[in-house]
Design a protein that fits this description.
234 residues; mainly alpha; 79% helix; VTT_dom; transmembrane; transmembrane helix
Length: 234
């Protein structure tokens, strides 16, 4: 018989699986909607109508996009992903990926500062309290690079900055991990946006499965590492 997981850890595994399944179902729904000619035509009409306004304000448009991307890295209920197709349509893949990456770095730095200087009461109002408490009890006092890297890949993007700030993880370590992890995720998000524009529903699902599979694998490796280091509590 396979060993049973401790209840708190099992609850967290289920949380991550439910989140991954919900995101995958959302991508499947979007892919299905892309097959409706009227909806796909309406999407392109919307993008075509927005492009002249964005082109008329190139600097302001980019600043707003970076700011909203940063906000999405701090708040669980807000996502900049809905803006990515419009950004790709206006600025291309490379420009959008760079702006998205810069926005996520900015948001992560602000989340870190919030955790470090404003403390736990503020953080508990911005992230799921149960999830934050679970990992605050299990992360080691001195977070090393491999643990920080796994945590950044495994968790929702808004969580690591707040918790690493609370734990006083060196900012240069967090920033290095953040920059390394968010670069491929930014590229993947841009490819998802482009697949939406090009009506490539199958490619969209492949990218979603790859991204979510990577995160779930990181969750598994993270828990094994925490348990091996004595950080897991039953």
């Amino acid at each position: 018989m396979a060993p049973r997981l401790p209840r708190p850890r099992l609850a967290q595994f289920l949380h991550h699986w439910r989140r991954a399944l919900a995101l995958l179902l959302l991508c499947a729904l979007v892919a299905l909607l892309l097959s409706v000619d009227a909806l796909f035509a309406a999407l392109h009409q919307l993008l075509a109508q927005a492009a002249p306004y964005i082109g008329a304000h190139p600097l302001a448009g980019r600043v707003v996009f970076v700011a909203l991307s940063g906000l999405s890295a701090m708040l669980a209920f807000f996502s900049s992903a809905v803006l990515v197709p419009m950004a790709v349509y206006s600025w291309g893949r490379a420009g959008t990926a760079l702006l998205l990456w810069l926005g996520w770095l900015l948001g992560g730095a602000c989340a870190y500062a919030t955790g470090r200087y404003l403390g736990r009461p503020m953080v508990r109002g911005l992230v799921p309290a149960r999830l934050a408490d679970f990992y605050l009890r299990r992360l080691p006092a001195q977070v090393d690079f491999p643990t920080a890297l796994l945590f950044q890949v495994a968790m929702p993007s808004e969580l690591p900055g707040y918790l690493f700030g609370l734990l006083r993880v060196p900012f240069r370590l967090y920033l290095a991990v953040l920059a390394l992890v968010e670069a491929p995720f930014a590229a993947g998000t841009v490819l998802l946006g482009e697949s939406l524009i090009r009506r490539q529903g199958g490619w969209m699902l492949v990218l979603a499965v790859l991204g979510l599979g990577t995160s779930l694998l990181a969750v598994h490796r993270l828990h094994r590492r925490l348990r091996a280091g004595g950080g897991e509590e039953d």
